[in-house]
Write a structure and sequence with these properties.
By secondary structure, the protein is an alpha+beta fold. It is built from 13 helices and six strands. It is about 55% helix and about 15% strand. A hairpin with a 2-residue loop joins strand 4 and strand 5. The longest helix is centred in the N-terminal third of the chain and has 25 residues. It is elongated, with a radius of gyration of 22 Å. The N and C termini lie far apart (about 60 Å). About 5% of the residues have low confidence.
Length: about 325
């Protein structure tokens, strides 16, 4: 039996409302995608916002003709990210000091989440090994096309035929890009025989010991925890004091850390999850002033990253 017009109208309204909700629900996976592609929450937000702007710029007829709005948005956001990666390389040539990816906390550790405040966009990032700081640093050494092809295929499971449309190359070329990126990631990862759980416990223990040694200004203990060939990199973005070049060598890093502790005075170190791994957050009178991420192998710190640029600390309260 045909519905009368007054009956059909509420049905169309309900369908439109459900479709709008479904479009809105895509924001979480889109932020996850864009953050991994860009290494910056601010840029990820911009990319997702641009994706939505392009969706709502379509007339209703074109929107209704798209079978999977989520897939459409993912494709558009990926293309926006590819363009942003190209421009980001130019911006970073003018960046003061070393550029590091923006760190994200574990959602359960957020003051905003505990107090019921509105969630920051970083809340939309699902933590796994693909947001590990070491992994993101390696990604940043890749060309934009390599990074996009690798992440879309190996992390988000896009077929190369779809990646080819996004990157503007053939599927075979995209397969080669992903393969090259995969080798870079493999070459950069320290070899360990420990199971994942045991490895996580060991990392947490090393970070805790490092915190205690730093607070005690114990150079000898710090040197024991740092690999002799360790590297420490700071990102102040020219907005706060930070070493412009990486500090190399465990002993040199230890001396630098003790000197920083003596100058800082009121610095308070907190054990926190940073990009899915044990890390530290430094606060001064309740304000986050630095986030520290670590790469650890064989119970020694191989690499230390200190993010001090205030623009990259907004997710930390």
């Amino acid at each position: 039996m045909d519905m009368r017009p007054e009956q059909a109208e509420p049905c169309r309204h309900n369908e439109d409302a459900a479709r709008r909700r479904a479009i809105g629900d895509e924001r979480r996976p889109l932020i996850n995608l864009a953050y991994r592609l860009l290494g910056s929450l601010a840029d990820a937000e911009d990319a997702v916002q641009e994706g939505y702007a392009r969706w709502y710029a379509l007339d209703p007829q074109r929107q209704n003709a798209i079978a999977s709005p989520g897939a459409w948005l993912s494709t558009v956001v990926s293309r926006v990210c590819l363009d942003l990666l190209g421009s980001a390389r130019v911006r970073r040539e003018r960046y003061v000091g070393e550029w590091l990816p923006e760190p994200v906390p574990d959602a359960v550790e957020w003051p905003g989440r505990r107090s019921g405040a509105a969630a920051d966009p970083a809340d939309l990032v699902t933590l796994d090994e693909s947001v590990d700081m070491a992994f993101l640093v390696v990604l940043d050494s890749m060309t934009p096309a390599e990074r996009v092809a690798f992440l879309l295929h190996d992390v988000f499971r896009y077929p190369f035929t779809e990646i080819a449309e996004i990157v503007g190359r053939t599927p075979a070329a995209c397969r080669q890009l992903a393969s090259s990126a995969r080798r870079r990631v493999g070459d950069s990862q320290p070899v360990t025989a420990r199971p994942a759980v045991a490895q996580g416990v060991a990392r947490a223990r090393v970070v805790r010991d490092f915190k205690r040694a730093w607070e005690a200004q114990d150079i000898r203990a710090l040197v024991e925890l740092l690999d002799p060939s360790a590297t420490a990199t700071a990102d102040g973005g020219g907005r706060v004091a930070a070493t412009l070049k990486p500090v190399e060598g465990g002993a040199e890093i230890a001396r630098s850390l003790v000197g920083l502790a003596r100058r800082a005075g009121t610095l308070n170190l907190l054990e926190r999850t940073v990009n899915g791994r044990p890390g530290l957050v430094a606060t001064d009178r309740g304000k986050t002033v630095a986030v520290f991420a670590f790469e650890i192998a064989d119970d020694r710190i191989q690499r230390l990253w200190a993010i001090r640029n205030p623009a990259k600390l907004r997710a930390w309260g």
